[in-house]
């Protein structure tokens, strides 16, 4: 039986990943400090004898003070704040989690000969000048901008993963995750879908940054988790984009959510935050070809499941 460490395993994507790995009868150690998630995400996992929670910060855990004795086979490194407002308010934290925290996890993987997967992001492409974004594109990131703690933090996490692979032969993998949504995301998260759905359910206005003509593409969480696991089980290093290439204007997403929730909410146009990307759409040819992966859940279907979740919570 494999023993797998999932950092950020209490978070939105991480909790779904832990659940899936437990279904496959692996032993899962979830390491999380619950900075940006709620413990209720793992309520259904906590009594599973193959699941263990360690409440800690990846920046404080290393080879010399391991809080567990098991030998790990794999580490999924997802620990990182990701919500746009949080990362802009806490740039030092987010930059160091993806640098110091990720280095600590890489050292643990190296010491145990474990496989390592780093959860990078489409933000690695910044405000892209190439559309859709292919993995070969180096991006257009402002290194000192309001989002740079996150964007450059993730780019540095990628750098470290490749450095450990090159210098130490570590079996490291990088996935670039594009916007993902679904149940268990935080209702107070200011990312597009949780914010629009919770505001629609609370009859509050849906804030549109700028004119809402900027585009995003949204991947349902179960598809994302399948892609992440396929990457870990592959012999690929990456980076490989994981996301849903169906592209939507933000204003259309807001209208769709108002309609699906039968809400009385109105749309409210607000200022665009700095360095807000104008377009975002993954080219997933590599994931299709190398991992035999592509998303299956359409936006309407995923939104219905997400709305049901937030309705039960609110
Ligand atoms: P999330 O905030 O729900 O999950 C992140 C988890 O990491 C949380 O449980 C948080 O408490 C934990 N965490 C943060 N800092 C930590 C630290 N120092 N030590 C231990 N735990 C810590 O967000 P998510 O959407 O599930 O994101 C998971 C990963 O995927 C992140 O690395 C994020 O950057 C990446 N990602 C997500 C998306 C998306 O659309 N959801 C897009 C691109 C990349």
TrEMBL record:
Lipid bilayer topology: Single-pass type II membrane protein
EC number(s) stated in the UniProt entry for this protein: 4.1.1.35
Residue ranges of every copy of the NAD(P)-binding domain listed in the record: 5-304
Pathway(s): Nucleotide-sugar biosynthesis; UDP-alpha-D-xylose biosynthesis; UDP-alpha-D-xylose from UDP-alpha-D-glucuronate: step 1/1
Cofactors demanded by this protein: NAD(+)
Family, as annotated: Belongs to the NAD(P)-dependent epimerase/dehydratase family. UDP-glucuronic acid decarboxylase subfamily.
Designated name of the protein: UDP-glucuronate decarboxylase
Biological source species: Candidatus Gottesmanbacteria bacterium RIFCSPLOWO2_01_FULL_43_11b
């Amino acid at each position: 039986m494999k023993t797998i460490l999932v950092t950020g395993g209490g978070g939105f994507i991480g909790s779904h990943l832990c659940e899936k790995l437990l279904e496959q009868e692996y032993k899962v150690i979830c390491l999380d400090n619950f900075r940006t998630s709620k413990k209720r995400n793992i309520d259904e996992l906590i009594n599973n004898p193959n699941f263990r929670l360690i409440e800690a910060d990846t920046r404080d855990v290393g080879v010399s003070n391991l809080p567990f004795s098991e030998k790990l086979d794999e580490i999924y490194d997802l620990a990182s704040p990701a919500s746009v407002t949080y990362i802009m308010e806490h740039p030092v934290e987010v930059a160091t989690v993806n640098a110091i925290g990720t280095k600590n996890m890489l050292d643990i993987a190296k010491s145990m000969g474990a496989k390592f997967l780093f959860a990078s992001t489409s933000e690695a492409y910044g405000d892209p000048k190439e559309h859709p974004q292919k993995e070969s594109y180096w991006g257009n990131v402002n290194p000192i901008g309001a989002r740079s703690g996150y964007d450059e933090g993730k780019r540095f996490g990628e750098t470290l993963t490749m450095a450990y692979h090159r210098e130490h032969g570590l079996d490291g993998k990088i996935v670039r995750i594009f916007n993902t949504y679904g149940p268990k995301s935080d209702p107070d998260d200011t990312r597009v879908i949780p914010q629009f759905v919770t505001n629609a359910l609370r009859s509050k206005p849906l804030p549109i940054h700028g004119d809402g003509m900027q585009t995003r593409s949204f991947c349902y969480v179960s598809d994302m988790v399948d892609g992440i696991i396929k990457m870990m089980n592959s012999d690929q290093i990456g980076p490989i984009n994981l996301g849903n290439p169906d592209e939507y204007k933000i204003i259309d997403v807001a209208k769709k959510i108002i309609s699906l929730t039968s809400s009385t909410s109105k749309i409210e146009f607000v200022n665009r935050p700095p360095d807000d990307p104008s377009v975002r759409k993954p080219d997933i040819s590599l994931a299709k070809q190398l991992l035999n992966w592509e998303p299956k859940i359409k936006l309407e279907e995923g939104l219905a499941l997400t709305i049901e979740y937030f309705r039960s919570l609110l």
